[in-house]
Amino acid sequence: MLSDHVMVYVDFDEREAFDGHLNRPVRIPSREFILAQSDKCEKFMKVFLEQADLHNYGTRIERLCEKFKHGVTEALIQEYNNLDKQIQNSILHAAKKTIKKKFGYNRSPRLGKAGYGVNFWKSVLSAKTMNIPVPEKTRRMAEELLLDMEYVDALSKQQTRRRTREAVEELREVQERADEERVQWTEENYQDIARARGELDWKSNMEKMLRETKQRAIEKKLTVLTKGSRRSLDWIEIPIGQWFYSHTNKEIYKCDRGVFECYAAKSPSPSLIPDAPWRFYKHHHLKVPHDDMVLALVREEEAQLVLETVYRPSMIWRTVNDTREIEMVLLERNSRHLKQAEIEEGRCHDETIQRMRKNHGTDLMDEVLNGTIEIPEATDEIIVAWIQAHKQTEEELKLPKITGEITTEQFQKAFAVVSEHTSSSPSGLHYTLWKCLARNDKVAGWLARMMSLPFMYGFANERWAKVIDVMLEKKQGNRKIHMLRIIALLEADFNTALKILFSQELIKNAEKAGLNDEQWGSRKNRMAMDPAMRNLMAFEYGRYMRIVIAMFAADLTACFDRMFPSLSNVAAGKFGMEKSVLKSRGKTIKRMRRAVRTGHGVSEETYGNEEGEPEIAGELQGKGDVAILYCLQSSITLDAHARLFPELVLPSPGGVRAIRKRNDGYVDDVNTWAGKIERDLGDVDEVMYDLQVRAQGLTDLNEVSGGSTAFHKCACQLLSWRSTGRTLEINYDMEGVGMVLTDAKGAASKIKMLSPSGTNKGLGYFQAVDANQKVEYEERMGKIKKTCSAATSARIQYSEAKQLLERRLLMQTRYGLTLSQFTKAQCERMSAQINKTFLPLMRINRHMPRAVVYGPIRWGGLGLNTDIYCLQLQCAMAYLVRVLRWDKKVADDVITAIDALQLRSGFATPVLEEVSTPIVHAGKGWILNLRAMMKEYDVSAHIEHLWKPSLQRENDVALLEAFSKIEGIKPREMILASEFRIWLGVTMLSELADEQGTMIERYKIVNGSEWRATTTLKGWPTGIEPTDEHRKVFRHCLRATVCTGMSKYGAVRDYKLSTPLGRWYPVPRAIEYSAYRGEETVYMRDEEGLHECTPIGNGEYEAKQETVLEPPLRSHPIPVNMSGPGVFWTHEPARLTEASHEEMPVTVTRDEIEDEVTEIDLISDASVHVEEGKGGVCWRALDTNDRVYSERFPIEVPRDSYSYRQEMIGLFHALERALKRFPALEVIRCHCDNQAGIYKAQRPTYGPGEVTGSDMDVILAIRGLVKSQEDKDITFHHVRGHTDEKLKPGEEADRIEAQNVECDREAEECKDERPAQFQPLPGSKCMIRVANTWVTTRVDTAIQDITSTARIRLYLLERLQITEWELNDIDTEALGAARSVHNWNRTARTSKMMVRWLPVGRHWFHHGAHNSLCPCCGEPNETFEHLFICLHKDLEALRAVARLRILRALRQEKFPSRLIQVVDMMLRKVLDQERPQELPLKGWPKAFKRIWVRQRKIGLENFIKGWVTKEWRR
Predict the structure, then answer these.
(1) Is the separation of the CB atoms in 1452 and 1460 below 8 Å?
(2) Per residue in 1317-1338, pLDDT tens?
(3) What gap in Å lies between CA 690 and CA 1447, rounded to an integer?
(4) Which of 88, 618, 1125, 1465 has its CA 20 to 30 A from that of 1365?
(5) 1188 DSSP β-pair partners
(6) DSSP secondary structure letters along 1239-1269
(7) Longest dimension (CA), the chain
């Protein structure tokens, strides 16, 4: 203390003196060293191993393990805890010996010294000002600063003040160079680290570390910029008063130790809640109160609570900043919060459930899991279903037991993957220490055994029972006590053990046995957007099929904090966890003492389970097993729900796939579904009642395990329909529609009913039933504006602005764009906001042509992906490919929804494969919006397993597809024609025409007709009764397309087809006919069904008694004449034909193997010439007698392809054709010289992220082909390629290598033949084509590249004034390679140069300048080209220097001298306007002449800008 009372001791009450603020310094947790300091790690291990040898830890641990094998005793447990304490002390001792704490890393010693100097001179100045001696402490500071105190004492006050100012200035100077100082210190420090690691090239590693350090600083800066700075919890707000009332929710709240108990109003009926309630139930649940709550006076009676007085709004919160009060309030609040499930009454307190919870859930575990537990007859059916869902299945009984033993390898891997900066360990044993210890095999073995013993023998480690609660704000800036989240910090080794046993081993068992497929959270290969996509597709299906469908979106309260560890143990036991592990876990949790951490430090007081108090339940957030245990418990709950309620099935028209739903759960968000697919518009009440019953069942099931539903956060969405006379429209009138749910005691809550245009936020998306995107757009646009505002107001460098754009803003936006349906106009507004903010920050003019901004760098562009409309397409297509190739539940939903759109559209061509024809009559949705974007960017998708209407006959067409191509047809007319087509039940012209295919009978289309086809499809859209207007428009469309010879005047007659329909194709029939002609017999349909008929002579047939399900594929409808009951006659012959398709041009070169061969070696190879666009494949089958069968065929080779892909395509075709050629094969050994492809082909698909990689369409096709032949033994082997060129003298090729050589030769021979056009391979699931180019790499980047390339090419043709041929001659591959290594500043400058976007006079004039004069020479019109010839002497000198630098660089790279002369001549021609010399000169190669000619075509000025011809590389 520097004052006139130096060293005076004062006795006072700190609390009173400082207004409640106690001076208790916060202990900042710091690490003694980090892993990057290898020398410190080495020293730490050395000290610890010395301690380990001293205390003989290895032997003692081995002996302890042996003792435990003979039985567990309290003395043995105490011995374990004592040993654990000793090891803990040794680790901490070694850490403290290693380095002084708080010494810092990446520090600046000079900065510290400068700051130290400022403090010294300030102290001296203070002493001289007060005329007192310089304090002894200050004199000691002088010694450290190497200052002579005699000189200091002799200074006057003015001199001292001047010296103080100099010290401050020096400090500021050092602060400005702090980064350089830190780098210098880091470099010296890293040399010590490198010596410890034994690294020779320490400089490159040093540079890498410096880059990482700089990157971390930038990331930290950007985090503060976008999310704001975090502040420690040094104050909170607590309520004033005990009872409160909410006018909005009609509820009363009681504040009990920092949480709010909510009491519901008593109502005369579940659906009627009084407007002014005064009686309330006495049972409660915890809830976040409404913002409008006010103080109230409540009287407690025996049976109810009575609201007596509601006070006016007033201040009901007060701020607490006293350290002890904050800690005590939080300790009480956390204790009460974690007791909520135990205190609140519910199904979890049922007698049977309470018996299950005894002894940490292990007493009745066996009976529960084998289904023999005794359940009283009066037990609620919900509880019974929940208990029965725990019964182990056959697959679960086969699971391996998890004993709790952790191996050394598991120990080391677990600590290797965790970040050392993760907070943990109240004891001080942080992750850096554990990671360092885990690197030593011997030490890791000891510690793995110590970690395993409690779990193997069912006891608790005393150190593990210490926990710290860290309080986080749920909403930034809101510090109300009930709005704080508890995150627990556990001991690092305990948490890691839980991760190993539960998050690795247990979930592996659970996935193997099979979890409920509707549980999406905390599971591998599942993302939050998957259930969001399922929600989207369900409503999309409902809109296309016009069905009634409803969803209840539930939100569970404090899901982790309401879990009972004892019941979680039962769920874990179901999937193979041993009781000893569960007992250890349960005992540890029960004995935990929890402190709380605030901005004032860690509290000395703790809370925990106390005798006579309700048990503290809740699985701790932050604990390594909590997410997995909740996943298992949720899966069991969903299984129980499946026992009680049937599945909602929304079938695909083809019947192969379907959307199957009951619920979709993602942690605390669970959506429950109900619907009806029958054609009845009056099903709303029935569907809503079904939904209410299902939602109530799920709510009750969650209560059994301690869960609670936050009814005030729940919402219901309903898709229903009303008729307008012309069509069906979404019904927005929700009057009289609602849902009421009750809790376990009968208190009713009315669920919020959303309008179809209202949005429900779930899993990061705002989704509306009618697919409107208003709220979603406002949310995304708001986030973009917020980031842009932060970027504009901050001082950031151009590189930081680019990083903020690409790694923060665009990454955040991409998640939302995956399932969004923004229009082009909305996306353009987003793009404009981003571009006008970030382009100037990145030193780009905001008016830069967007073709250049978005264009690839190899075409002179900037490569920025800020075209939001294109980015939305990229995200959607990448996710679509991922989902469809992974081919799980979400794929079923997507395919079914696309099938529904296909049916609604009435098109025969797949709706995502041919996107040019608009679909204006199907409404709107994600798929239709995707289709519009695909049309914009010339993208199409080939998707397997989709249903589409089949062409039934020759000349057949889809009616609506033909109608949509009528010139000038209006959307209203398309809607009317579509509605009539749906009412008719037909899609194809052949289904409406007669069996002869010549006309459409009058009775089918005349006004008032009742004819309707009977569909054979599994689903058909709901339609309305058509009016005469519908029929009139439909007839008009017929006359404009397929019946062009018919007149619109006069009475309606039979409509004769302009082009009669031909023979029938052997495809499934979409409608039912009265009779069918097969190749050998005839089939007839009556009321009983379809009968096979027998001929009885004279063309007559008689139906058999038996019925068949459907006619054969090779049959077709025919007209018949009935001559009696079950007897008819027909003379109609079979008129079948096959659809034509392109065949692969295969040539069989050798055929020596018998057809019945069972074992072969299959050898394939490809010859690829990418430059020529040619290639060939040859495959050979070699039997055990070395007989050969050989085929070869040419293949299509795209310009950007390569041999890897073509060889794998060849392998697929080889295997496919071998299986067809030799059907008796049992063993196939496939050989290929493509080692990487062979490796990929034979391993399984590990996750959805893998299926979108390069050439995975071919790999998936091969895997699918192998999987379809499970009865055959198909293996893959690598063979050395081109053996004839690699053999050493005296070495011979083996039989497989010799055949591979022959394959290569034959493939080369057939490359010049005409190949078949490439088509996606069967099994590739989904492929994308952009501008007639099949995408074989990452879909999103390919779409961006191809679409932006097309855009910038058009711009360059006009900008550079060159032809298409000259543009194609530019060597963009070399440009891309050169520019890819540039930093952003150079990339921006070169782009401006290449597209002539520099601030020359002409550009200034266009943007408001008075003239376009050249400021150097006065040229009236200063253009970009003028810069090359400006006569100003300074510019002439600069151009001369630049030319010499270019020539010098070419000489340094050892370019041929004549080539350098060519470059020099081109430069001089442009820069000096010299007369061009003719090439070739005498004795010069012809190649130089070609370079000169080709470059002059592109332009010598363009050569200087970087546009070079491909001839330079040739």
Answers:
(1) no
(2) 888 999 999 999 998 889 988 8
(3) 82
(4) 1465
(5) 1182
(6) HHHHSPP--TTGGGSTTHHHHHHHHHHHHTT
(7) 139
